[in-house]
Structures are given as C-alpha cells and as structure tokens.
Structure of Histone deacetylase 8:
Amino acid sequence: MDSRVESTTGLHARPVAYIFSEDLVKVSTSTYESIISSRLPSNRNRSLLVYSLVHAYGLLATCTGQESQRFLVVRPRPAGQKELLAYHTRDYLEYVMNQSSDAQNLLEASEFGLEDDCPMFHGIKDYITLVAGATLTGAATIRNNISDIAICWDGGRHHAKKARASGFCYVADCVLAILFLKRTIPSTHPLKKPRVMYLDLDLHFSDAVSQAFHKPGSTTAAQVLTLSIHHAAPGFFPLSPLASLPDVDDPAFDPFTLSVPLKAGASNKTFLRIWPIVEHVKDIFRPDFIIVQCGLDGLAGDPMATFNWSLGGEGSLGWCIHRIIHEWQGKKMLLGGGGYNMSNAARAWTYLTSVAGGIPLSLDADIPEYSGYLRFKPSFTLDVPAGNMQDQNTEEYFQAIEATYEGILSVLDSRMVPPTL
C-alpha cells in the first residue's frame, strides 16, 4: 500500500484525508440492498446517503484564497490478495471470493460463517477488496505523512474473523489496518515500532479485533492496545468473555485488551463519567496511531434501542471525537461501523467529518435542500438528540468500573516501563 500513496512535504497543517470513490459507494450500497431480507438490520443505501449529505454541506469543496484546504479526497484502490492474507486464511478468501450467491456449498458456507446475518451476495469479491482497500488507503495516508487524520466511513467491520464472516462483516479491515500501521517505520532512526491504539465506540463489542490481538499471560509491552466501550448483557451479540469488565486476577487477563461494558440507556452522562479512564489508558500507552471505530448504533433513535447517546453536548459522541482529534497526540483514523437509522447515520458522520476538519457544523443547521432532503424529516436539522430512555448505569456500577480500572491501569503502567538492568 505504501508504494501507491505518495507522501507530500511542506505541509504545516495537512488536510484531512477523506477516503471516497464512486465504486466504493456503489459496492457498499448494493451490498446492503442485497441482504435487506436478512434477519438483522440492514444498512440499505447508508453509504450513498452519508456521502450525499457530506457533499450537500460542501465540506469537501476545495478552499480558495488564504484559507487552507481542509480535506483531501483520496481515491482508494482495491486490496490485493497479499494484503488480505496478512490476516485472513487462504481457505476463507478462496471460498468467499470465488463463490456465487446461487451456487454455494451450504456446508462449506456455514463453516465460513456465510449464512444468517452474513449470506453470500452478488459482488462480494468487489465489496471485500474495496472496503479493505479503502481502510488500508486511509492507514497509508497517515503512515506516509500525507495526512494526520483520515476518514473512511465504509470501514469499521469489527466482527469479521480470520476465517469467518460474522455480524454483517465479511472482511477484517480494522485488523488489517492495525497490522499495517504497527509495521516498523523504515525512515526513522533508530528504527521505530509504532504503537497503535484501537478505540471502539460501537454498541456491540469489538470481538474480532480484540481477539486478534489478545495475548493472555504475556508480561511484556505490546504494540497494539484495543479498548472497546459497548453494551454487554446475557444473550447480547457478540458473546465473548472478553466483552466483560477485565479481571486482573484472571489468567486470561491482558492489559492491552480492554473493555468497558455499559448497561442499557447509556447517555452523555455515562460517557462523560467513564471518559477519564479512556484518557488515562491513552496517556499510559502513548500511541503513535489511533484508530476509532465510530459505530452509531448506540445513538438515540437507532433501531437497536439500547443506548441513549446523542451527537452534541458534553459527553456526546461529537464531544468524544472532538477531544480525540484535536487534543490527543498521534495520528488518527476514523472508521464507520454499526448504525441502522440511515438518516441519523448520515447526520452523525457528516457532523463528525466537519469536526475532524476543524469546521464543526451547527447541530441546529438546516439540512440543505438536495435530492435526499426528505429523508431527514420531521426535524430537517443535523442534530441527533437524546430520547427519554432511563440510564441504568448507576453510581454503584460506575464505582465498580473505576475501582477495576485502578488495578488495570497500574498493571498497564508497569508493562510500559522498560525493565531495569
């Protein structure tokens, strides 16, 4: 990927890399149209709606005059087989890339997770290579100093496993990007092994990403730290022991694979309360690269109806992303994820795009009159406000999380200190 994205020099304030192509939008849109009959919520036309609203607000327009360019639209290329094999098994790729939706072996399809919420569909090969390629293109722009911030809203497929599709996710683009970014940077002297922090804000636990880098029993510092903030409850997808609050006394404990499970109704107040934990983890780990999976199924109004998070206000999704982008050290990449209220997904990712570019739109802003205008009724504004759901995250539960993380942060800090000779 490095050789295809050339670095530029002389930029003091690099524009945000916005990963976009018509092919990517088409394949993302057609993908979800083809699985609309599946039993889990689909994302029909979401990609198209997001990009059209971003364009309607004129966020990607080239700036003129004295004002610096805020965004650089970067066209992704499809990922090659070698890049996909950096994580996925050859058997999985050969099967999923060479089967048609009407001529699959059901037994083999089941073995690779290609059933239920992840059925085969026409164009799956293009979908896998384009989505993976888009996320890797974003990673290359920040690794090669083209940008300090990259955005790829079609990425964030955090349930795809090494040899199985799962939870609407067919390709592990998050894992591939982490593996790419953790590679030694040859231009540094002495050679540097970058640290990569993966922060997942989706309603659902980042099971595949967390499992990919989970190293129980290790006593050394790791290059990758994963932190997932999500809902966890009996029977709630995905089921994983790593989704629970970590236990430092558990033999499987790894201070670089972290979770903050939240109860139903999590609101701005909830995220404001736990955010110091996120900041402390970041400060101890000191990442060179930060990947943020910005799933939206925790926002109020989503069909999942589990959290009551909003787009604006202290502790909101917008507040969190603003802090990460403008206050944290390191280079950042924002990815998409869940989100099944299509209009709210377009609102949220458009707003986060403006935040990343340093030109935040007003949440009271009217939706521009364009072809998709009627999709945003009845408010016809950008905001995604909180609803009336009760927040079940109690003071007692917050204290339990904080007490647990006191021990976790202590272990993490000790791992980051080089041993004395």
